[in-house]
Specification:
Blueprint lengths: L4 E5 L2 E6 L9 E5 L8 H7 L8 E5 L14 H9 L1 H27 L7 E6 L1 H12 L4 E7 L5 H5 L10 H9 L13 E6 L4 H14 L3 E6 L19 H17 L5
Parallel strand pairs: 3-4, 3-5, 5-6, 6-7, 7-8
Antiparallel strand pairs: 1-2, 2-4
Helix pairs in contact: 2-3, 3-4
């Protein structure tokens, strides 16, 4: 197996996995979870999609992996305690989305992926980034997939202790990050992976998004899968867990069915 390629693109850390034999192939870009696996390298190890004839480039989320403050997660935890929505969840999604176009441009320059449509993948909060790319980015996408995703940000906020003090600003933020409400803007095939042991609200949101998308979506329910895809601490690459292997197989098959040709 070819070793991962570690680098940065427009300041964004990445772990790239080439297709077998290397060479020209389509591109799938991912954004990892903030639960384990919580870095691009750890996400690549959990969901490598090694059987896929594509370049898989796993991007690092803000303040994670190589961008952790002092090599620790304490700064992220502090933001979540300050304000889980306006200091943590929404800014991370906005920053990762804003960084994407420049990072993609450098990835296209560095790897033989062509300039055609790409695949996008996101886990948990990274799923909100992938969904935001699908509804707002001009980048052409051939297919998307999300795993235990933050489909409705209000549901994620509800996972934090205590009632959240919504006001006009925060209401507007969660409405903008409600991808069931924005399902009409998703125009490509989407695989929605939901662990049978994930948070009940996130599972309900996955079902609602699949229903809203109709024949544009496929819902894959994974027995035994809780929210994380890896064991703690989930920062360094680790052996793939059996539940992650089941997700990996589903993703490999899904993207494999939709891969475009690269000229």
């Amino acid at each position: 197996m070819t070793a991962p390629i570690i680098g940065t693109a427009a300041g964004v850390p990445f772990t790239a996995l080439p297709p077998v034999g290397g060479g020209v192939a389509p591109l799938v870009v991912s954004w990892h979870m903030l639960d384990a696996p919580r870095s691009d390298g750890a996400f690549a190890a959990a969901l490598p999609m090694n059987g896929l004839a594509a370049w898989r480039v796993h991007l690092g989320m803000p303040m994670c992996g190589a961008r952790m403050v002092d090599g620790r997660v304490d700064a992220v935890v502090a933001l979540a305690r300050e304000d889980p929505l306006l200091a943590y969840l929404a800014p991370f999604v906005r920053q990762a989305s804003a960084e994407f176009p420049a990072a993609l441009a450098e990835i296209r320059e560095r790897f033989p992926v062509g300039d055609g449509p790409i695949g996008v993948l996101g886990g948990s909060l990274g799923g909100a980034v992938a969904l935001r790319v699908l509804v707002e980015s001009p980048v052409a996408v051939f297919a998307g997939a999300v795993v235990n995703a933050a489909i409705r940000m209000r549901s994620v906020v509800d996972l934090f202790p205590g009632p959240y003090p919504y006001d006009a600003e925060s209401e507007a933020v969660v409405e903008g990050l409600d991808f069931v409400a924005r399902a009409g803007d998703i125009g490509v095939p989407l695989l929605i992976v939901s662990g049978e042991r994930d948070h009940s609200a996130l599972r309900a949101d996955a079902v609602e998004l699949a229903r809203a998308l109709g024949d544009r979506a496929e819902l894959l329910s994974v027995p035994g899968l809780a929210h994380p895809l890896a064991d703690e601490p989930g920062i360094e690459p680790a052996p793939q867990l059996p539940v992650a292997r089941a997700v990996d197989a589903g993703l490999t098959a899904w993207f494999g069915r939709h891969l475009p040709k690269v000229e």
